[in-house]
Write a structure and sequence with these properties.
With 137 residues, the chain is mainly alpha-helical. The chain folds into two domains: 2-95, Monooxygenase (Up-down Bundle); 98-137, no CATH class. 40% of the residues lie in helices and 7% in strands. β3 (109-110) and β4 form a beta hairpin. InterPro entries: F-box-like_dom_sf, F-box_dom.
Length: 137
């Protein structure tokens, strides 16, 4: 029976394998993107980490509308800064790990640096801004 299904449902060039089962073969990316647009941004990040292929699809430029739609589903969320891609913005807001050392449970976001980092990495990775009064010049 699997051979019959494989002949009837030929893979499309513009599709992605969703499940490794004979019942669900492949779906066009347009349908996959439509389904993904109903997910919460944090779910999209999690989904992008499930496989290389899913990461490739969700981080491609063609999926930008999916991210924007997903972000628009969250009330009160500020717009994505123009200097960040939507997946980066989602990771910054909904992520829980230090972007330098990977420590989990980090809550501090340093918006001027566009980074979430732990107290140790703030000291070692971030440059403090000096005021004119503190300047050695």
């Amino acid at each position: 029976m699997h051979k019959v299904l494989r002949r009837v449902f030929k893979p499309l060039e513009n599709s992605i394998l969703l499940v490794h089962s004979p019942e669900i073969k492949e779906m066009p990316l347009e349908i996959v993107f439509e389904i993904m647009s109903y997910l919460q941004p944090a779910d999209l990040i999690s989904l992008s980490r499930t496989s290389r292929r899913m990461r490739e699809v969700l981080l491609s430029k063609s999926s930008r509308l999916v991210w924007r739609t997903s972000l628009s589903n969250v009330r009160g969320l500020p717009a994505c800064p123009i200097d960040m891609a939507e997946p980066q913005f989602v990771n910054l807001i909904f992520g829980q790990n230090c972007q330098f050392c990977g420590k989990s449970g980090v809550k501090d976001i340093y918006w001027t640096c566009r980074a979430r980092c732990c107290s140790n990495c703030v000291k070692s990775q971030c440059v403090c801004h000096l005021t004119w009064d503190d300047s050695p010049f």
